[in-house]
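Form 7-S
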Amino acid sequence: MSVTRESATAYVISALEAKGTATRDDFDVAGIVAAFRDIAEGWDFHLMERETFWRIASTYLRT
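Output:
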């Protein structure tokens, strides 16, 4: 399977909803994907460390 914007978005949504305490609607998913894209310089977000993921995701939490 190729790594695309769509697969990266699905990865972010899956990670956000994995524990059942949050949903994609609680976050600006497009913002998270764009921020990761800038850092990773690609769409393969599986290479990101978990702490990095949550640090970035927390800045895109909707209030």
